[in-house]
Design goal:
By secondary structure, the chain is mainly alpha-helical. The protein has nine helices and no strands. The longest helix has 32 residues.
Length: 185
């Protein structure tokens, strides 16, 4: 009888280790690589000045797509979720198939606490641009962390690897996929 408990304990410890490994690795993947391509390099005062300039540009020309995207990115970088969502939505009215903007919009929905809307935006971005890897990466993150959907995350990251088998995140994605496969058995 004691041997049965020992095997049960070892099995539970193994599964717990796998789950913990996936969570920690994905957390650090997102922390170090980030969910998007945009990385601010300007100090806070400059970004707020940039926001004011972009707002002035858009007051004169509200259809300026590049200004809308830049303003959305500035709001993104300053964690102004609602404003970023509003501006990205305006940009998508002009360029509805822009997968980068749609993915950033999805990230803002996630940060605002609406993972279902984020998932919808990531899926639409992937549909609009079948080669867009960041939408698949972010879809996997939200499915795994916010929805607890291991199989969905696995599918999203497998799609990612089909598109970018040797990119900067590829090795880590392979490792995550193997862990998710083990967890979903």
């Amino acid at each position: 009888m004691k041997k049965e408990y020992a095997f049960l304990f070892i099995g539970l410890a193994f599964i717990t280790g796998i789950i913990l490994g996936v969570v920690v690795t994905v957390y650090y993947e997102e922390k170090y690589f980030g969910p998007t391509q945009f990385s601010p390099t300007t100090p806070d005062s400059k970004i707020y000045n940039q926001i004011e300039q972009l707002q002035a540009t858009l007051k004169n020309n509200p259809q300026d797509l590049q200004a809308l995207i830049a303003l959305g990115n500035a709001y993104f970088d300053t964690n102004q979720f609602a404003k970023a969502i509003e501006v990205y939505t305006q940009a998508l009215k002009i360029d509805p198939k822009n997968a980068d903007v749609r993915t950033d919009l999805g990230i803002m929905y996630r940060r605002q606490g609406d993972p279902d809307r984020a998932i919808a935006e990531f899926r639409q971005a992937a549909q609009d641009d079948p080669q867009h890897v960041n939408s698949r990466y972010n879809l996997g993150l939200v499915l795994l962390h916010d929805k607890g959907d291991l199989k969905g995350a696995l599918a999203a990251w497998q799609d990612y690897l089909k598109l970018e088998p040797s990119g900067p995140r590829a090795d880590n994605m392979r490792m995550q996929i193997e862990k998710l496969k083990a967890m979903s058995k």
